[in-house]
């Protein structure tokens, strides 16, 4: 396992994935799995430390996962690393992903299924990106949205 992680570390992309965990969202494991598939530098769990690892399908063993107690601690870390935080949420003022800036080195911040990102998380972001949708639902599944955004980052930069 250590050899696999070491090999992945030589090829990881410079984007990070963060998930705000304030309602113990079951999608977190699936987002970790996608982060591994798209070779994110690291996954950040913001808020509650516990998350459902079942959806990760053991990929969390190969993916660096860091915990931050709250949004303020996460933002402090991102600022210290010089990484802009790009919020992903379909709120007023968000920019469709096909027209949005996705910096090469950044943190893609995802919210909870249903309520999305907290007001504090949205306020901390340097940009807010949404996925254009055409049907009657207000939003797509959080894990699906994360995979779409990570794919788009890879399409542009990988």
UniProtKB/TrEMBL annotation:
<dbReference type="InterPro" id="IPR029028">
    <property type="entry name" value="Alpha/beta_knot_MTases"/>
</dbReference>
<feature type="domain" description="tRNA/rRNA methyltransferase SpoU type">
    <location>
        <begin position="15"/>
        <end position="151"/>
    </location>
</feature>
<keyword id="KW-0808">Transferase</keyword>
<keyword id="KW-0489">Methyltransferase</keyword>
<dbReference type="Pfam" id="PF00588">
    <property type="entry name" value="SpoU_methylase"/>
</dbReference>
<dbReference type="InterPro" id="IPR051259">
    <property type="entry name" value="rRNA_Methyltransferase"/>
</dbReference>
<dbReference type="InterPro" id="IPR029026">
    <property type="entry name" value="tRNA_m1G_MTases_N"/>
</dbReference>
<protein>
    <submittedName>
        <fullName>tRNA G18 (Ribose-2'-O)-methylase SpoU</fullName>
    </submittedName>
</protein>
<dbReference type="InterPro" id="IPR001537">
    <property type="entry name" value="SpoU_MeTrfase"/>
</dbReference>
